[in-house]
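Appendix B. Extra example for self-study. Work through it before the problem class; the solution is given directly after the inputs so you can check yourself.
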Amino acid sequence: MKLGSVTYASAIIGALWGGLWMLITGILLMLVTGITAQPPMGITALIGAVSGLATVSFAPSMRTRQWKILRALCILAALMIFTFAMPFGATLSTGPIWNVIFTLVWVGVLSLSLDLCLNGYVGGATNRYRLEVLFLRVMKGVGFVLFSIFVLLPFYVMVMTSLKSQQSLMANPLDFSIDFAQGPSKLFRSYIELFTQYDFGTFLLNSAIVSVITVVITLALAVPGAYAVARLRFPGQAFLSRSILLIYMVPAIVLVIPLYAVFSQAGLRNSLLGLLVVYPATTIPVALYMLQGYFRGLPTELEEAGLMDGLRRVGVIMKITLPLSLPALASVALYVFMIAWNEFLFAFMFLDDFDMFTLSRGVVSLNSSEVPRQHLMAGAVVATVPVLAIFLWFERYLVAGLTAGSVKG
Amino acid sequence: MTQQATPPKGIGPMAKREMRLAYAMLLPTFAIVLSIVLFPLLANFWISFKSVQLADLRQAEIKVNEQLRPKPKAAGEDVILRYRVRNSSQKAPVSDVFLRDTIPTGLIIGAVPEICTLTARELTCDLGDQPAGSRLEIKIPVTVEQSYLDAGVRPKDQPMQVSGTSKNVLTSFDFTLDNFRKVFSSSEFWTVLRVSLYYTIFGTAGALILGLFAAQLLNTAFFGRNVLRGLFLFPYVAPVIAVAFAWVLLLDAGPGGTFNAMLQTIGATDGPINFLGRRSIPFDMFGFTFEFPMALTTVILFEAWRYFPLSFLFILARMQSVSSDMYEAAEMDGATPLQQFWFISIPQLMGILAVLFLLRFIWTFNKFDDIFLLTGGAAGTRTLTVDVYEQAFAVSNLGAGAAVAVVVFIVLLFFALIFFKFSPQDDG
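Solution. Structure tokens for the complete assembly:
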């Protein structure tokens, strides 16, 4: 074996992947099956280091499929011998199938990571360029894994908690295994209770009504406004197109006290109507800003042709501008919908009666010691699923909308 | 004599029509923004100079209870028609109170108190000014006739009119500086301001760095990139209540907390760590003891987690628009990948990073929901925005809350000025 920077790097990379994958598969094993595991990260890091060294001692052309299978078998054998046949620190008799599956998964991902990282590298010295490429490969790999976990873990906990019962969670908080044997009515008990006892049907309907009407009002007001700012000349046009941004930097918390005071005395508080006044006001500046940017990008000639052919301005907007800007309208509509659906502060401050609650307000009302936590999480899932579904369905438009206007928080 | 052609001065009829059209199209937007954003902004200043409690929003009003005592059973009985008058507010007086009522038929009225006058069956009482919390009874002796008992119309069934004017604390012209004095003199205020700045600076920086890192991951094309991009946007798209509570449960220190159980199983910690409830954890380094702000760090991490998708999207979009020529040239010159990142990518991204930082800075400073839902402002995580809520609605002192809100707005104005000074002139 030739010594040199790649040799050392391969050992470090192998140790890193061996330990990291053991940690992840070990925790996954616990979450999925409820087995209490003690992932032996030190031993697996060592095994990973050795297999990394072994990988770079062979020339890339020699690492055939048979060679890789042999390496995997060696890794498996080493794991079994050094952990005394307890790959996850738990005896194989507790859930033998799961133990075997996760052990194989560990061997598989470790081999794959080694191959992806060390592909084309042989032991010995190398130049800085190739060393940095190696470093970046590892960083990317670790980055993907950690980022995905970091992003998804809270969502995973949210969904799984909503399917568990309070007792089993308290007994083993790491056990997120789903017991399908209990039947769907028990599995989805939290959801059924939310809709039968906690009025979540009403909340869902309220949220939908408020969000959709907000979108309609916002578009109805922002389209002419944006058109005027983008196309018509008038004193203050330049000032307006710049100061729109300023308006939506005004924090909601500064507005909430006066609005609370005025709405209380005007009787608009504790009504969906109050929200329908406030939401469009906060979304119109964003929508206007996004739309005027898009309108500016449309060729003026088309509109001028329309004007020459005898269309009035309204006709031009309805028959030429709007059909051309359907993608932008979709972006804005989705973005506004998302803001209105997720809005918390005003819903929380204004709504007191259960039959008025939007989902945001409804979920907060579940946050008490009397309501079991799986109900709270089921409520969170109910609030999240529609907006995530819409997001995934129209991802292209929403991403465009987000990048166009989402300086907003 | 030749007529010199001059360009038209002022605005011609065409331009005027265009202007009128533009204003008409902008009118609804102006109206709603003025009434829901600008008016409250000014009103907030107004309220901050007033001594207003949450309870003052309920207008003082006169409540009257009308009864016939004892309950008449037979004709010819002498009973008392009694009005119990009460000012519902404990603080605000009501002036010029009048009571008007129609006495049911079948009751013969004896002597009427001198503040009241009776014309036919209409009773009018001038109650004058009623101080806060006052109570008063008007007793009128009446004789019951058979027709009253037969008709079954009770005094309560007759509509009664009570009028009076009470001062609305919001519209009065009494001003005070007490709110500001209270806000600035409390020792807590400066802690709150400091926490706000820490939260804003580190939250923004965290979100930017995570976003930059995520954008590097997804910059190259590979199978499943779009799926991963969608995934990375989840934290931002999901409702704040859902993700905040998911984090609260995940980090729970009591039995049932997933993350603590994980740490203990691996052997990283001995006991549970109260991530969101513990103000600070002392640790020793070089012989000094430092206080590590636990809850604040967790809240900042949440902020970075929730908003990295935004910076990620912007940075990714910018990176994909950098032409590959530059990288190819650098490659030819033998630049290593890290050198390329440092000397090509970072300078190219500087503009968008600066804009993102300033905008996110302002928006993080404005953020209320996240901290409110995670900790409620406890354990050293109270920022200015949470303080507004605490003062106005938890302590019920609207005036003090508005005063803090004014501070928020002024700090923000300062940031916005900086932003507009440094923002690039093109719409980036």
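Self-check: The mean pLDDT of chain A is 86. If your reasoning did not lead you there, revisit section 3.
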